[in-house]
Structure formats: structure tokens, C-alpha cells
Amino acid sequence: MTTTSSRAGLDADAGGALAEVTELCGRIAANVQRVIVGKPEVVRVALVTLLAEGHLLVEDVPGVGKTSLAKALARSIDCSVSRVQFTPDLLPADITGLSIYNRQTSEFEFRPGPVFANVVIADEINRASPKTQSALLECMAEHQVTVDGATYALASPFMVVATQNPVEMDGTYPLPEAQRDRFTARVSVGYPDLAAELAMVDEHSASDPLEILRPVADARHVRAVVDTVRRVHVGAEVRQYCVELVGTTRRIPDLRLGASPRATLQLVRAARAQAALSGRTYVVPDDVQAVAVPVLAHRLLLSADAIASRRSAVDIVRSLLGRHPVPAPPRG
Prior knowledge:
The protein is of the alpha/beta class. The chain has helices at 2-33, 40-51, 66-75, 93-96, 130-133, 137-142, 177-181, 194-204, 219-230, 236-248, 261-277, 285-296, 304-308, 313-323; strands spanning 56-59, 77-78, 81-85, 97-102, 107-112, 119-123, 144-147, 150-153, 159-164, 185-187, 217-218, 255-257, 301-302. Helices cover 46% and strands 16% of the residues. The chain has a 5-stranded parallel beta sheet. Strands 2-11 form a two-stranded parallel sheet.
């Protein structure tokens, strides 16, 4: 009797915590969709990335709302936000900060860069040189910065939302594999449909919706819901499914570079976040499939034959999902 009552109490607590997650994410989504009209799937991926304690890469052609998405997400949370406009002459110290000599104290003092914020908007990240892009490697992987031998911790939560134009466009540098691997998910905004574009013209042509956007959450609330997402259960069958799915990308001939073990960890974390958004305390294979394309596709390097056949990384991930056996639900 006592065991049954305790289990019921734990289920009730988990249900209450998940209700807080869905309620908070609903407010943030509604806020962001005031700016990004007709793109609920893009907003969903952004929220999953936030709950998974990850970083988001927004890639698309100019003018479709990449920076607006990053700004709307950042302004929906009452926390510290910084924006870095990546340009060819940007230096690593312009991002991380640097030590400056103080004549009064005769000592060097560290001046923090814009990376010391809860949300960092890296606008047009692939317009800076690879040397400058690499300044974010330690920040994104370890949530810390090392300058002149001293290590400085970053704020919590910490999220990088980067935008980039397609690599084929003039004046861009492709992100190195190590940089792409640190982004939890990649999303493309895409052109709006006719109705959404008409609504955007009616509502946004006279004023910028970002100017009147107000926060609907704060850093403390985000930390609380992230802690809840960490406790979402991932069964052995689902964990095995994730490992096998990612492992398959390392063996197929269409790819010359598959997904890394970091990708497996990010896939599981994103699946947890997707389950929490769905109001469940456990992950099912549908959650993994819902996040597999944004989590895995940008990490893959195609072979020459795949490129010649006009196949994309998204096509390959979807093909793997279609033919990979889905685990059966546990018995009992």
C-alpha cells in the first residue's frame, strides 16, 4: 500500500512538472509565432533545442526570418542576451573577451566578450573566417572560456543561436565539421505559404513586431523546466534504437563522414525534450524520429556519388528512419 501510494505521488509530481514545461513552452511558442508567422515546426525545433540544453543553427537564404527567429526566441526569455554580427574582420577575442593591462593596478584584467550571456545570437556565422568561428568551440561544448591560461565559466542556461546563409553564396566560409557537430539541431525557415505571407504583410508592414515583444519567461523558469526534461525516462530499447540509428550513418556508402557519439547524446537529449513537449514522462520511438532530421542531417558529409545523384543529408536520414526497425514496446 505504501509503495503504491509513493509511486502515485511520484507520478503526480512528474505530471505537474511536465505541465509546467508544456505551459511555459506554449507561452514562448505563441510569443515567437507573433514574429515568425506560419512556421510552427521551426518553432518546435527551437524549443526542443532550448529544452535539450543545446545550440541551434538556422540556415537559409536571406530575408526569410533567420535573425528574427533568433531575436524572438531570445526576447521571449527575460535573461542576458548578446548579438555578434560575424564579419570577415572579426577576431576570436571579439567574441570571448581579452585581457587588458590596467596601469593603475599594474595587472592584466579580463574584459568579458559577448559570449558571456544566456543567449548568444551569432548572426551570419559563416561570414567570419574559420579561425574566428573556432572561438565558439569551447564555449558550446564545455560552457566555459579559456583566455591567457585562465578559465571562466559561462552563465546558465547558455544557448547559441546562429544563423547562416547557404555555403554556396558569395562571401561565406563553410563551418568546420567540429563546429557543426556542436550544434544540437539545424533548421531551415523556408519561404512562407501564401496565407502566411499575406498575414505577415498585413501585420508587420507598418511596424516591427520585435519592438513590442515582451518576455514570457525568465532564466530561472528555463533552468527549472530543463531540470524536468533531464528526468524524462529513456528505456533501454529506445537507447539501443538511437545508438543503432546513429551507428548506421558510419557504415553506409552514401556518406564519407557519419554522425559522432556526440550526435547520439544530442539525439537522446532532443528526444527527451520532444517527449516533455508532448506531455510524457518517457521517450517513445516517435520522439526520436521527430527530431532525427534536425539533429543528424547537418553532421553528415556526403560521398561524391551521393552528391552526383543529387541526394541530400536530409534524404539519407529519412531513408534510414524508413528502413531501420523500430523497437517494440516492452512487455508487461
